[in-house]
Amino acid sequence: MDIISLLMSPSTLSSRGGERRSYSLRASRLVPSRSGNHVDEVWPNLFIGDMSVANDRYSLWKLRITHVVNAAHGKIHCQGSHDFYGPTVDYYGIPADDSPSFNLFHYFSPSAEYIQKALDSNEGKHPPFLVHCAVGVSRSASIVLAYLMIQHHYSLMEAISKVKENRWIFPNRGFLRQLCALDKQLQK
């Protein structure tokens, strides 16, 4: 199966005994959901979400999120900052456009290191971590795929399959090309 076929295949969303958590926002409350989720746990304590959950500090508090990577940082995208989240959330902004021509590649390693360092912190308690963009399917998914490839030695196909167990994703074709280049680089 090729990458596009894997992405287009019916979702294999997990519903196994609460191993992963999915939430949608309803009436300003987090409510477990199976589809149309604003945020999903795609790896232990690693969530992918959209800007609605990222802009809701109460939801982040309920999820106990301590670190945020905003893959759509900027005035015309998702305005997050250290000031917005306050001292309880560590923030990392990536000013990425969801455009096939945007070079996300040079953010793959720094963001993967940032995520791993945060997940390794807190004396092994693995604080919950959110990676988000505007919709939560392209930029943020690409960052998480790169994280799994770099830090956990997954191939791109394995990383896509792993994330798709819990969240529908669809990185744009430019990000897929960059992830393929990363995959080839890591295979050497």
UniProtKB/TrEMBL annotation:
Domain of life: Eukaryota
Domain Tyrosine-protein phosphatase: 37-188
Record domain Tyrosine specific protein phosphatases: where: 106-167
Enzyme class: hydrolase
Active site per UniProt: 133
Keyword ATP-binding annotated: no
Family: Belongs to the protein-tyrosine phosphatase family. Non-receptor class dual specificity subfamily.
Protein name as catalogued: Dual specificity protein phosphatase
